[in-house]
## 1
Amino acid sequence: MRILLWAVEFREVLKRRRMVRAYEPESIPRATLERIVATIRRAPSAGFSQGQRFVVVTESERKRSIADATGEEDYVGEGFSPWISGAAALVVFCTREDDHHDRYRQPDKVEDEGAEIKWRVPYWHVDAGKAAMLVLLAAIDEGLATGVFGVPAKRMDRVRELLGLPPDVAVVEVITIGRAGDDTLSDQRSSRATRPRKQLDELVHWERWG
Ligand SMILES: Cc1cc2nc3c(=O)[nH]c(=O)nc-3n(C[C@H](O)[C@H](O)[C@H](O)COP(=O)(O)O)c2cc1C
């Protein structure tokens, strides 16, 4: 019975999962934000390296500076709400690659002759994505909405400076959180609304690709 209840709830959360780029001008209690970002401790990571890091920004001035630095004006037109500065919180997703190297130099992870594995996939970015998904779903669970944007390369130095990031930590993406506002305009222009969702059989292959 417990399992059945859980499954239904998850489907409901998944159904509601979408990017929202306009929010009500209302702050979110600190305790709610803490529950959302605490999901980082439950996120999976390769070898339990735990390279994921967040910087949570809630102060208006700081959000304004980050919005300016990340190019909010690119997303704002007539009738649009300010997506980034108008969010109640920004969660800057970061990754510390060295956590993975440190972990994979430990005795149970090294390969023949004690060498670190050859990284075929940058798991420090993969793991950041897994933590991001938890934040997106946890926000829905709290009745809130989220958006995701990437920081363009040319804007990265300024964003790093504003956040005071140490050199060994890289920014992966930023999640905006708030109570959903009227996002009709921004949603109409979103990538999801302007191209078809791929068919399942293009995305999922059973037993063999072909
Ligand atoms: C890593 C990442 C970066 C994204 N960057 C942007 C962005 O810069 N601007 C934007 O409007 N949406 C951005 N999105 C949102 C996608 O456009 C969105 O997830 C996709 O269109 C599917 O829509 P949905 O998430 O609402 O289902 C980003 C999503 C991800 C995962």
## 2
Amino acid sequence: MHGHDYDVIIVGAGPVGGYLGHQLSAGGLRVLILEEHKEIGKPFQCAGLVTPSAMNRVNLHSSILTDVWGARIHSPKGVEVNIGDPEILRTHVVCRKLFDEGCVRQAIESGATLWLGSKPIDAIHEENGMRVTIEREGKNVELRTRLLCGADGVHSWTRRYFKMGRVREFMVGFQVEVSGYEGISGRLEMFSGEDIAPGLFAWVIPNGKAHRIGVWAQPERLDGRSCEDLYDNLVNHPLWKDRFKDTHQTGRFKGSLACGMHGNIFKDRVVIFGDAAGLCKPTTGGGITPGFDQVDMLAPHLVTATLRNDLSATHLKKICKPVEKVRKEHQRARILRDLFVSSCDDDELDTTFEIFARSEVVSLINEVGDIEKPVPLGIRLLKDIPEFRRMAIRATWALLTG
Ligand SMILES: Cc1cc2nc3c(=O)[nH]c(=O)nc-3n(C[C@H](O)[C@H](O)[C@H](O)COP(=O)(O)OP(=O)(O)OC[C@H]3O[C@@H](n4cnc5c(N)ncnc54)[C@H](O)[C@@H]3O)c2cc1C
């Protein structure tokens, strides 16, 4: 080991840190995962949607609470759009604690070491590796590693400590878990409007026996309101309040998301992953699938490079290049999201929903819509639906230059 205690130290034992730890250990690296909390998966900040593509990579089907095949989407004035096909599974809803624990367990089973209650407080780049000082249960421990990976979430210590760049867009969310909501089996619900979810959407997601009710907002559009205010507006909205009247809260939490990065996801011998790298989807806020995608793209090359101790800036740049494609795709998705949702006022949203509700548009959404890849649907809507063609003029330039 030539003086290295580990080949890789991963900061953060969330789903992405766990999945990364598993891939790197399985590739033959000596991996240490640091988690600042004393327990995995707590506190959790997630609506629990995990796409089949992500689920199949970790095979944690026992964490699934229910499945979703469709959605009922509401415009600000109550135009309803029903999409989906009961025969086509769109996403799973999981218990995030079980899911996160499963991802980290797989890393341990393939050889990784997990330190709970531990966080880095200092890291120095040396000629042949990194020297990392870790605060572990009140004591400081110094370790040497070839590579340091930050999978430490939206407010990543690693990203900030190494000044790796700024997050392009933050979104804030608030979610309440309730019993007593009369939902429709297999379908989630989405609500829009300036009073409820400025710039984005609110949701009701079934999770087996109960429901998760949440709101997303762009912070700059909150205008002095809190996410809790938006939630109150949703559950007391004259159009929908009857649906919420018998609900009882069993849990609540707040959190934020990072979409897109200005800057690099690598520096010296440091690489950031998942939320730390701003990889959440701007359309849904989903971060697990893009985080896993990033691990799949980079891990095999990082294994080879670490075993050879060839982690020069030039080599890391080459290894990290494929992530640029994901970033560009998210940027295109953001432009389309802004065109159809975020930059629209409530009247414009109502007009758009009236078009969405037409049977030929619903068919198009069902045929092309994909929670993982929203860009093809956005482009088809702009091309095929005459009323949206005027948007296409604005969109084309933005999409080309985005
Ligand atoms: C309200 C809300 C709803 C969401 N819903 C969904 C959804 O339905 N589907 C979806 O795919 N995504 C969703 N997301 C996003 C999703 O939660 C994240 O994208 C996902 O958790 C990212 O995983 P991660 O491993 O990168 O980061 P995290 O899950 O944030 O894990 C990071 C880990 O690092 C630890 N950590 C942080 N700093 C340190 C440190 N300095 N030292 C040691 N440990 C540290 C943390 O304790 C944590 O365990 C939602 C987010 C929010 C806020």
